[in-house]
Write a structure and sequence with these properties.
With 707 residues, the protein is an alpha+beta fold. It folds into 4 domains: 126 residues, PAS domain (Beta-Lactamase, 2-Layer Sandwich), CATH 3.30.450; 162 residues, 2-Layer Sandwich (Alpha-Beta Plaits), CATH 3.30.70.270; 252 residues, TIM Barrel, CATH 3.20.20.450; 132 residues, Beta Barrel (Thrombin, subunit H), CATH 2.40.10. It has 21 helices and 33 strands. Bound molecules: ligand C2E and magnesium ion (2 copies). The site of one magnesium ion (MG) has 4 residues, from loops.
Amino acid sequence: MDSAQRLAMLDAVEEAGIGWFWATDASHRLTYLSPSAARLLAPGRTIAGEPLTGLVETVPGEGGEGSDRPLPFLLGARNPLCDLTVRVQAGDGEMFWLLTGIPHLGASGDFLGYRGGARDITEAYRRRSDSSRLAEFDHLTGLANRRRMTSRLTAVLAGFRVAKRSCALLMMDLDRFKQVNDTLGHPAGDDLLRQVAQRLQRIAGAPAEIGRIGGDEFEILIPDMDDRGKLGDIAQRTIQMISQPYSIDGARAIIGASVGIAVAPYDGLEPDELVKAADLALYAAKGGGRGQYRFYSNDLKDSAQERREIEEDLRDALARGELEIRYQPVIRAADSKVGLFEALVHWEHPERGSINPATFIPIAEESNLVGALGEWALRQACADAAQWPGDIKVAVNVSAQQFLQESLADTVKAALAASGLPPRRLELEITESVFMGDIDAADLMFKRLKKLGVALSLDDFGTGYSSLGYLRKAPFDKIKIDQAFVCGCTEKDSTNPAIITAIISLASALNMETTAEGVEAMDELALVRKLGATNLQGFIYSRPASQADVLAKLESGDLEYQAIGPDRHRPERRTLFRKVGVIHEDSRYEAVLRNLSRTGALIEGLLDVPVGTELVIDLGEGQLAVATVRRSQDASQGVEFETPLISDGADGLCTRHRISPYSLAAAGMPLRALPPGHYAMPVIQGAPPSRPRFMQVDVSASSSRAA
Ligand code: C2E
Ligand code: MG
Ligand code: MG
């Protein structure tokens, strides 16, 4: 091939755009660019003489040696350019080229410029970034998918560890999403998920990252956040937002959400450690009833295990007939006589003692045992009630999940038939959560049950997703005012009486009866009577009793119940017996925490600490609360916290911030998530330890004295 033929071949290659050539002078100005490329780059303009760096730039993260460095740097260092992906400003748009080049040296080794080639890879580049977008984002909601969340979390945690920064991970799971999917269909479920995603985006904007990591599970990653007060607020707001009604294709649906929170570096330093912690917290949140949030804490590890054990044992207990039903009388306000007994399932566990239904009913719901449990309870309660004289009724609790099973109406019918109990003597107690999910399906079930002739009451009113709208539509005969409103209704400044009054007037306007639940003290009884509750229930009349006891009472012919209880409601003080650390100067003591509120605590174990002394109370798991002694007598001190504690989502309290594992590491301890228990004080090197100022006394033996 002669040089004319070679030139012709290169011309053809250039013109076809298969490959282009370029060259620069020593100051990186273009001296040559294949004409077809130049036309694309700068139509109608001569490009010779323009600096190369003004025309193209590197694309970081795109491979090619040195791609993370800016082009001027690479050229300045006279590096060879090897398959470098560059972005090229071409007319109004942009193109992507693969650039190669080598420094061109003169005979004496002096640098004359670059010579190289280039190729258009725009289409392949676009395809590649689209597919990596697909691989990283959830097609349904457009949120990050699990893969992207994992890689973001990994990157954030690695970077933040170096910079000693914090990062929170919120894990959210929708409650009863399955019901929407099952009853309204999958397209409706998809629509709902998209709406959930939109609401989440409104709550958590940048720099937070939101992802959908599976069916109805979402994650929110919030960098530089370790304030548990703020995190609790965010979780609470998220739950509220998600629990507002949705409109899907003309149908209305309500769902709920539970949130678990873990914070790096406190609860985990590695991605999987943090995810596991958030997961356990979520699990606990769901277990505590729906619509709650929880922070991770070390003892959740045990409670997850405990739940699994309870689930297994419950399965056995049900099969072996170890559950029992107890009956609590509901008293008519008019004549103080019993008109109805509420059936409450009771479980005496051979090792754990009695386990509350509030603990095991949610477990039964989650493990699909609630159907069998509910059917058994219905049959047993109807059979027992059929033995009661006269017209006395029985009320059976029906869980929301059971309510939405189509078989419920048939189950009720069969239980009535088997026992011979007339339908008007059976009442079903249903909670507001049946309105979550598909409301039309709930309506249908209401109609079928009413047709059977049983009564319906709305249990625990006011605690859940209260919407007064459905009260008017649903055929309830009775509203049960939750004990949360009754308890403490006589306390000063309580808003409960106003709420109770509102519920009662609403009920009477709708021709419904009311039952005040959980009445314990005489003053509460007097108040709810005065406010007009038509029925009364609570320990003040009777705790739930066995069928034998109920029969004995009824056979005596005396249907009246006497109120027996304390005169006044006593505000609940959390009485505790928990070991805490107390730090004063550089001494550390052990004490027992007797009670704890947001603003202070009562501790026992240090003798004669003067009022005004500043202490640090170590509540465990890195929670240090600065406190001042306000009252002091012998070995017990009332202390006031400098910063009030905050809710931990459950009914516990925690400090807003924790001691950072980074500072512990700085004091010579291994860097790891906060261990359970108390924080060991790093020894301050060089400083002679001061003598302990207070005498520590053992209070574990004298526990009765604190009361
Ligand atoms: P609930 O239906 O609101 O039942 C009332 C609960 O309050 C019962 O708790 C009862 O023992 C308790 N209680 C009654 N009076 C007082 C009082 O004066 N003070 C206090 N502090 N508590 C009082 P229990 O038996 O632990 O049941 C808890 C919940 O478990 C029930 O709440 C109900 O929702 C559910 N449950 C109980 N049995 C069944 C059942 O057979 N099926 C279903 N699905 N749920 C059940
Ligand atoms: Mg009930
Ligand atoms: Mg109740």
